[in-house]
Each structure stands twice: as C-alpha cells, then as structure tokens.
Amino acid sequence: MPKMKYSESLHNQILQHKIDLSSLDFRELVEWLKSSFILILSKENNFPNTISMTPLQDENYKILILIEAVADDKVFKIEYGEYINKDSLVKSLVKNNISRLSLLNFDSNDINLSKLNSLDYYTLIKTKKRKILIIY
Fold first, then answer.
1. What's the gap between Cα 3 and its chain centre?
2. Whole-angstrom distance, CA of residue 126 vs CA of residue 133
3. pLDDT per residue over 87-131, tens digit each?
4. First to last CA, the chain
C-alpha cells in the first residue's frame, strides 16, 4: 500500500466513523487525536514509543496543535487546527510542509469555495445545523 498523507488518513477516519470533532471537549479531542495518529502509524508498521502534543500559535486558528510521535529513530508529525472563522481560512490558505488537518465550522452559505481551488484536498460536509469544511 502506498504511503498516504497522515492528514488524509485522519480525514478518512473522521468520515468513516462519522466523528463530530466539534462535539468533543479539548481533553477528548486531544485523546482522539493521539489514538488516531497511533492507529495511522501502526498501519504502516510504525509503533511509537512516545507521543507529544504541542500547542502552536497562529492568529487564524482558535486551536492549532502539533502532534509528534517517536518510534525508535524516526519522528512522525501531523498538525490539527480549527479555524476561527471563514475570514481566517482565506488568510491562511498556504502550503505547509507538515501534514495538517484543518476544520472550519460555519453556518452561513456565504463562503467563497472558489478560493479552495488552490488546495489539493478538501471535503465539505453539510448537516441541518451547520457546515464543516475539512482541509487535509
């Protein structure tokens, strides 16, 4: 099996298991991210000895976390973030060297999806109450 981007694997887990990350409190979110990243790595026969979570600062995100797993002499990294609002999404559409999964929860229809054409991968989920944009 070809190596998949970690953010894509995390995205697939969210869709497959119908996980609503916005319903989790911060502690539950961190635990879900840790266990999911370990599962992703184990599917590639990488079994981390340690895993750490480091909060990052970015004015466009209300939550941004770097997750690092160490397995013997290898280090694996992924970032998880939740945008503040749709305006912060437009400001931060830049390529990142580290695999990052970003979410945007929004209610209105006034988001300009044409701005997303520069991205390789994204999914838009619509529910009765809100919309969730997942960029991976």
1. 18
2. 9
3. 888 777 655 567 889 998 887 666 666 767 767 788 888 877 778
4. 19
Q: In which order are the strands placed within the sheet that holds 50-55?
A: 50-55, 61-71, 74-83, 100-106, 131-135, 122-126
CB 108 within 8 A of CB 126: no
Beta bridge partners of 120: none
Residue type, 63: I
Question: Which of 1, 32, 46, 10 minimizes the C-alpha distance to 134?
Answer: 10
- How far is the C-alpha of 129 from the C-alpha of 57, rounded, in Å? 29
Q: What CA–CA distance (Å, rounded) separates 66 from 28?
A: 16
In degrees, rounded to 5, the angle at the alpha carbon of residue 79 between the alpha carbons of residues 86 and 87 is: 10
Number of Cβ within 10 Å of residue 108's Cβ equals: 8
**Token pair 């991976």: residue:** 136
